[in-house]
Design brief:
- The structure is a homodimer of 521-residue chains.
- Chain A is α/β, with parallel strands linked by helices.
- In chain A, 40% of the residues lie in helices and 14% in strands.
- Chain A contains 15 helices and 15 strands.
- Chain A has helices spanning 42-61, 77-83, 95-108, 127-139, 150-167, 180-195, 199-202, 221-228, 249-261, 284-294, 352-357, 389-425, 447-450, 456-476, 504-518, and strands at 20-22, 28-30, 33-34, 117-118, 173-177, 210-215, 236-239, 265-272, 297-301, 326-329, 342-346, 429-431, 439-444, 480-486, 489-496.
- In chain A, the strands form three sheets. A seven-stranded mixed sheet of chain A has the order 5-11-10-9-8-6-7, sandwiched between helices. A five-stranded mixed sheet of chain A has the order 4-14-15-13-12, covered by helices on one side. The first copy, chain A, has a three-stranded antiparallel sheet with strand order 1-2-3, with no helix packed on it.
- In chain A, strand 2 (28-30) and strand 3 form a beta hairpin.
- In chain A, helix 1 packs parallel to helix 3 (95-108), helix 9 packs parallel to helix 10 (284-294) and helix 14 (456-476) crosses helix 15 (504-518).
- The two termini of chain A are 51 Å apart.
- Chains A and B meet through helix 1, helix 2, helix 3, helix 4 and helix 5 of A and helix 1, helix 2, helix 3, helix 4 and helix 5 of B.
């Protein structure tokens, strides 16, 4: 291996001194490098891109909707390392070899586009967002200043405006960022800044303990955020939920009172609209009342459930969301905008986002530019370079219209409803609870357990069922869905329906397949 | 407009109640939605993707290297809003209209691939990373668990290992994340956790003030990070630099002593390898000595300069980097991996990253999986869903080999050297200082100012030159480079050389063009 970085190779001639040679053919050499003309072979590069695009089209896009394809081609990490040529060497590989590598990468990657991929809160293939994503990659923008990203900044502004409209605010502000977890961090910091702007300069040292409240069913990013922001996970108070996983408002109010008694400083309530496991929606109106009474910032983590706002039939799930101070909403989930497409939306229009986040870098956000620098929105961000994530959602919205997006949400929830009814009909399947949204949580009880009483032994054995079936389905490659233990409940499946490429036949298949793979247990 | 979200439309029939109808043709209806078969027209969608790919190929990829194309087609925000049809409506647009929209988006976007785009610390078109990026978009992975992202997790592991090797560590850990700013936050939080692990649970309240040190030339993300993490911007101590922009080690040691006298708690030194404006490299060996003496975590922000590690000729700029505890390095800058491709690398191998960041979400990181769950690396991240950013860098490395990457770095720096020599030769151009790296900072002094003494009036007038020329070049669309005032120096140009598509002819053009656009001033 020649690439040992500590080994000093004889460098060409002058050992670091600058030379500049003008040869006969007018070639300019500096440090042994010819500087005339570009060095890359653009024609060969372009041909490679074209060939790879054909491969991607054939092997990924065209096969995405084909249920005869496998969802995954399982290999263990050890096997996969053998199969893939991962090592980066001193010399490069020729194009035909790179295309083989691409083929391997596709082959062994999980097909998250597949109609039977139900493993996460995203799935399916949206042709419009895909095109927007290809364009973004080709144009390679960074969205911080209007001079570098004129189109993408205006698109972001338009998309945020529309999302704000659907939340029900008259006006507002917002920013696309890399994930619901990061959106929640933005909100937490913003609420803290509103509570005490001095924290930006002075930090938390010497202040009373800041306390925030969220439901016991919230996303784990709340803990990550509290730890990252220096608040501490112990200062996240988890409010008890009802049987459906919804925060109990009375419990929230009790906890706020208790925190005050302790001398701590409550500053934020995070409600969840669409919890990760159960798909539960917290009662926003009642929580908003409490926040108003106690002067607390209300953040709604609608990363998953926010898309229901587009459905006139289902937006009642988020009744009261217009009373929130901030909202996290990820169109990359149910609206299929592609990983990642996540917005933090803020009701305030006094430029709170900018005041809280700005660092006024003079090399990037010059104030003597020849255009209106209020379009240089990058200083609202914790990032410097930032991707044009709003654009892919915009493209889908342009293509389908609001009504088309609404239809997607309605269809996903109708399919969920269908699955629920099928589960009720079938022997050996047992719902955890009636779902409100697209998370259908259920146990599969194999024949041998159906005759047992629901005692400790039953639950212990049932706990092993979902992991075993999951292993079998992945090794077969027929379908993927998630399972988990959850708050005292042993391992159960969580089925999530999103994609319009999914049909009721896939729902039937799912249940048949689970039964087929688990009936010997 | 039909999309007023507050207006409740008559919903189909049952007003929310669940109905399930089995019609003659075996069509299953739930809530008025037919659930049989997929609803999307895959053929039409695929055709649209194919047509759009052709457009992207022709209008972006093939034109990327063409210097006869404009770098930008400037329009003011107001004009651009008129030209683009940004509004999202109730009904969707047909494919031919969407393709026109794509064409408009391309037309008015800045061509960051263009050989004469020198505006930021990224530029150019890398065909290999572009292919990897197209693949990532088509496969739409989220990199948190092996079951969902087997290939991309192994690729990330391989790339991190290689980067660690080039830093000069025997082993280490790391994570790709959305930007150098975020990498710096990761490092700051990690150093804080190492200093006092209790902060994760208890937060900063009641603790002495944590203090960190960085150079006065550091990236603005240091301030953003300190504010976001609850440390406070006042607790970032900026250490004075020498005339070339390098941190003065004696000043660092003085500041550490002073902080201790104040009763504050120093915990971190951030050195910069390749500052944003001047491209300066802090003296790492001397800074590492000081960190060792005082027991402080040493983080090196090599977001920009890290790529010099691949050049045997230039890696001496980062002499001593192996002594760092953590390093931020963005291959999307000089190595052209595409926005974003950023790694935080950590020397520790006691699983510090995981201990510091884990939240152990049981729905995602189940411990009873059938494979080795140490491959589920997502719990090291502050994000939940995460993009496969390592893959694009891996593809370029596979294609070019280490030697090809080295050649890129060497060529960019040789071209910079060429430009420096040209600037020295030409009347009216004045270097700020001899550069170490690919940032060439200089003033253009128009003829009318060349006869003036360098007094207040001269500087005042010179301050207007760069913004005016920038406006002219953008309106003409011929070239883009940045300018800024900086630490008492009036507005000057910062030229950055990266792409192998750039030639010495482009350097000559740049200087000619500035002179052409500014000689009447």
């Amino acid at each position: 291996m020649n690439s040992d970085p500590d080994r000093e190779y004889p460098v060409d001639g002058d050992g670091g001194q600058q030379e500049m040679v003008l040869t006969r053919k007018n070639a300019v050499l500096v440090d042994g490098v010819i500087l005339n003309g570009p060095t890359t072979d653009a024609k060969a590069g372009e041909k490679f891109v074209e060939e790879a695009c054909r491969l991607i089209m054939e092997e990924v896009v065209l096969k995405a909707t084909d249920i005869n394809e496998k969802v995954c081609e399982w290999r263990s990490p050890e096997q996969l390392k053998q199969l893939l040529d991962l090592e980066m060497r001193d010399t490069g590989e020729p194009h035909h070899r790179l295309l083989e590598l691409c083929q391997d990468v596709i082959r062994y990657s999980v097909k998250t586009n597949h109609p039977r991929f139900f493993n996460q809160l995203y799935a399916g293939l949206d042709y419009y967002s895909l095109v927007a994503r290809f364009m973004t990659e080709a144009l390679n923008p960074s969205v911080y200043t209007y001079e570098v990203s004129p189109v993408f900044l205006l698109v972001e502004e338009a998309v945020l405006k529309k999302m704000i409209e659907f939340i029900g605010w008259k006006e507002g502000d917002g920013i696309f960022n890399p994930g619901g977890s990061v959106s929640n961090m933005y909100a937490m910091n913003l609420a803290r800044y509103k509570y005490c702007p001095d924290i930006k300069e002075k930090g938390l040292s010497g202040l009373p303990r800041l306390i925030l409240f969220t439901s016991a069913e919230c996303h784990y990013s709340m803990k990550k955020a509290a730890s990252f922001l220096g608040i501490g996970t112990e200062n996240v108070r988890f409010v008890e939920t009802d049987a459906r996983g919804k925060m109990i408002p009375e419990e929230l109010e009790k906890q706020i009172g208790q925190a005050r008694t302790e001398g701590a400083a409550p500053f934020l309530v995070c409600a969840t609209s669409g919890t990760t496991v159960l798909g539960a929606f917290d009662p926003l109106e009642e929580i908003a009342d409490i926040c108003e009474r106690h002067g607390l910032w209300l953040h709604v983590d609608a990363s998953w459930g926010g898309s229901a706002l587009l459905s006139r039939k289902h937006r009642r799930l988020l009744q009261g969301i217009h009373r929130a101070d901030s909202v996290a909403w990820n169109p990359h989930k149910m609206l299929m905008a592609g990983i990642q497409c996540c917005a933090l939306l803020v009701k305030d229009k006094s430029d709170l986002l900018k005041k809280c986040y700005s660092a006024k870098a003079s090399y990037l956000f010059q104030q003597d530019k020849f255009y209106d620098v209020s379009y240089d929105t990058g200083d609202k961000s914790i990032q410097c370079s930032r991707r044009a994530d709003a654009f892919k959602f915009w493209m889908t919205w342009k293509a389908l219209g609001t009504l088309g997006l609404e239809e997607r949400v309605n269809r996903a929830l109708a399919l969920s409803r269908y699955l629920v009814e099928e589960i009720k009909k079938r022997a050996g399947f047992k719902l955890l609870m009636e779902p409100e949204y697209a998370n259908i949580c259920f146990w599969y009880i194999p024949p041998s357990l159906r005759v047992m009483k629901e005692g400790p032994e039953f639950w212990e054995k049932l706990n092993l069922v979902a992991p075993t079936i999951k292993e079998r389905m992945m090794k077969k490659g027929s379908v993927m869905l998630g399972y988990q233990p959850h708050r005292g409940k042993v391992n159960f499946f969580r089925q999530v329906v999103i994609s319009p490429q999914v049909s009721r036949e896939d729902m039937d298949f799912l249940l048949d397949e689970i039964d087929l793979l688990g009936r010997d247990m």
